[in-house]
Automatic annotation (TrEMBL), chains A, B:
This is LLM class flavin-dependent oxidoreductase. It comes from the Bacteria. It comes from Undibacterium hunanense. Keywords: Flavoprotein, FMN, Monooxygenase, Oxidoreductase. Pfam families: Bac_luciferase (PF00296). Residues 19-371 form the Luciferase-like domain. PANTHER family: ALKANESULFONATE MONOOXYGENASE-RELATED (PTHR30011), C2H2 FINGER DOMAIN TRANSCRIPTION FACTOR (EUROFUNG)-RELATED (PTHR30011:SF16). Belongs to the NtaA/SnaA/DszA monooxygenase family. InterPro entries: Diverse_substr_monoxygenases, Luciferase-like_dom, Luciferase-like_sf, NTA_MOA.
Length: 428, 428
């Protein structure tokens, strides 16, 4: 396939992305969570999605407890064959040896389909599970993240592609000249290596990032294969896309070596009216407590439960955590349109500030194509509003429309995630 | 089944337990390691084994890199239905929140089949991957391990059995009174909780330990569900069994609430001669470099490569790490029988000091029965010499013999690992 192809991720939360998804008539009871994820991953794979994608938090931040991404993705590796498996692991409260090893192991188990979403942790409830009384400041988090990434990549390069010989005749298991210690000594880590997992068919797991700050964008420009990002409209996405791609080139990499995939919250109907009804059903199910908690988290981890729901948003101090830009956006939105707290949380109850499309497959495909062809996106991380129906609608109605237009594959191009994303094999 | 039943684990190393297993004609190339493990786990499950069991090290200690146990077990959870899934995670270089969460997640994915083998790390190559210049001293390791276990168990008790409601009608996801923070503050850890994985069908993952020191035995007596141990003969196993069971009672627990499972290295033949031939085939394949490395590791992490192979073992300083008792045993063995280094490593090339049986299914079943009925073992962790044949031989030849004698199940008793091991559901 010579023409540039769209990339699609399935960003899965247990009940779906809408804050009321768990109350949807289709919502799963949670008794056998793996059965649901297996069904979802297989649905996404049948539709040729590039990846499933799992966010993460090392604290109980919302709803009931879910599954941990690395264990979940490993189980999904055993029941899928083609789809990429991207999970989040924080650099703030982990050790690089463990992270390098677990993703390398997932990469080998899956035959080269693993991806690591590198994040930093910015909230106090995570800090409190790791012996800290407050979250780590932004600058320190990014300095640690950069060194963390360097160590992980160094460990992934422990074994050259042809280091393992298993020569039974000569009694030689591996070529010692092709196995490399790391001996890293830096400000945050001291790691000898080598890694005890040998090299995967795709060389290294794919690295995903989502930082929107200056430090985050620069780290991504230098080190990420994929960037996940949130934009409510074309202009915002274009500004981000052009900015980040120019940073990639400035870092000495081809612009196309980093794929930019904004989030997309789609509500699909066979008619516009049906799509609106599906959305309204969810809006009507929002529990005020859940809406308030979501808004509080998104605006910088504030507890808003003491404020009257139908009054305007109070003045809030500027947050130090990673959600500063989102805090500003929401504050401006509330002030600009004179929204009450309730009206504001209903605005974000679905897409949480991500690109939101409510309509027919044609309408949604039109907008995807517009972004894809106008320097706003290399693909999208699809955020189904509820599950399994929200993913099935996209897979069965929108994907065929994208395929008809020649924008999206009808079968997987390659064997590994890098093959399918069109990323080069890392040098070694 | 009213009579006491034997428990069996399948202790899997990539090529098998014999140090020359990787050179066996059947040995896997390592290109698709998961395909092999899937086949092995399914073989063990067909034979009604209680568990598969994976050891671990957070450094490259031998051979080529393998897979990480938590990712591997999660993938195996998706392709098995009954067998328990036990993996090792060290308390020395991990955070309790991560360990509690990953095993809880595996437990939910597998429908209540997870087990955590709690170990401490005693070697310098592991230390060097986590910013330490030398390994942690024995006493400090156990103090940390004890507190680590306390935190993990506290986190596993975050959610009461009926805390999750998912009451769509009333809009209530969980009963806040049945969700508990931990707020642990101790010498080594400060962890707020609650865990972000809700409770599994078996309450908590099974806890396995293998410490042979005073500190290790006391911790096991107070906290372990299963103990894995190494004994070359009946008398040694009986002494350990009686000692540990009395400690269990002293700790206020029923003796039967802790299952003792010594390792068993079986070489099975239809005749005694066939079994001996199978063993000799492996002995003849031992590469001196591999034999020396194994001996060096087992005797306390010494590099023996400079010593002449056919001379006696040199005097070695007493090791501070967890292998003191093994070091003494091997030194006495070498001196008592006047063994050369080569002869000594050939003695341990198979069972590494574990109970070793080379013979017919009847002979092996006789010995298992003898240990099981004479206060030496509640079951065995079976260590196949090579793979897949060594496991298949045990499953197809020895297990039916044990079943015929009424010692071992013909189908799984329950749904969870605790059910099958005959362990009570932890209170909560």
């Amino acid at each position: 396939m010579a023409t540039r192809q769209l990339k699609l991720g399935a960003f899965l939360l247990h009940n779906g992305h809408h804050v009321a998804a768990w109350r949807h008539p289709q919502a799963d009871s949670g008794r056998d969570p793996f059965a649901l994820y297996k069904k979802l991953a297989q649905t996404a794979e049948r539709a040729c999605f590039d990846t499933v994608f799992f966010a993460d938090s090392v604290a109980l931040t919302s709803g009931v407890g879910g599954l941990e991404p690395l264990t979940l993705l490993s189980a999904l590796a055993a029941v899928t064959e083609h789809i990429g498996l991207i999970g989040t692991a924080t650099t703030t409260y982990n050790e690089p040896y463990h992270v390098a090893r677990k993703f390398a192991s997932l990469d080998r188990i899956s035959g080269g389909r693993a991806g690591w979403n590198l994040v930093t942790s910015d909230n106090a409830s995570e800090a409190a599970n790791f012996g800290r009384s407050d979250h780590v400041a932004h600058g320190e988090r990014y300095a640690r993240a950069r060194e963390f990434h360097q160590v992980v990549q160094g460990l992934w390069n422990s074994w050259e592609d042809d280091a393992v010989l298993n020569d039974k005749e000569k009694g030689i298991q591996f070529d010692a000249d092709k196995l490399h210690a790391l001996n890293h000594k830096g400000d945050h880590f001291s790691v000898a290596g080598p890694l005890n997992v040998s090299r995967s068919p795709q060389g290294q797991p794919v690295v995903v990032q989502a930082g929107g700050s200056e430090a985050g964008k620069n780290l991504a420009a230098e080190t990420a294969d994929v960037v996940f990002t949130a934009h409510p409209n074309l202009a915002s996405a274009q500004a981000f896309y052009r900015d980040l791609k120019s940073r990639v080139v400035h870092a000495g990499r081809p612009a196309d070596s980093l794929k930019i995939m904004p989030g997309l919250f789609p509500v699909v109907g066979r008619t516009q009216e049906e799509a609106q009804e599906k959305f309204q059903l969810l809006q009507d199910l929002v529990v005020p407590k859940d809406g308030l908690a979501l808004l509080g988290r998104m605006i910088g981890n504030f507890d808003l439960s003491a404020y009257p729901l139908d009054e305007p948003l109070p003045e809030l101090p500027l947050t130090d955590n990673g959600q500063q830009s989102r805090q500003k956006l929401l504050t401006q939105l509330a002030q600009g349109e004179n929204l009450s707290i309730r009206e504001l949380y209903l605005r974000i109850a679905g897409g949480r500030g991500h690109f939101t499309l409510i309509g027919t497959p044609e309408l949604i495909a039109d907008q995807i194509q517009l972004w894809f062809e106008n320097e706003a996106a290399d693909g999208f991380n699809v955020m189904p509003p509820y599950l399994p129906g929200g993913l099935e609608d996209f897979a069965e109605l929108v994907v065929p429309e994208l395929q008809k237009r020649g924008l999206f594959r009808r079968s997987y191009e390659g064997r590994t995630l890098r093959d399918n994303l069109g990323l080069a094999l890392p040098k070694k």
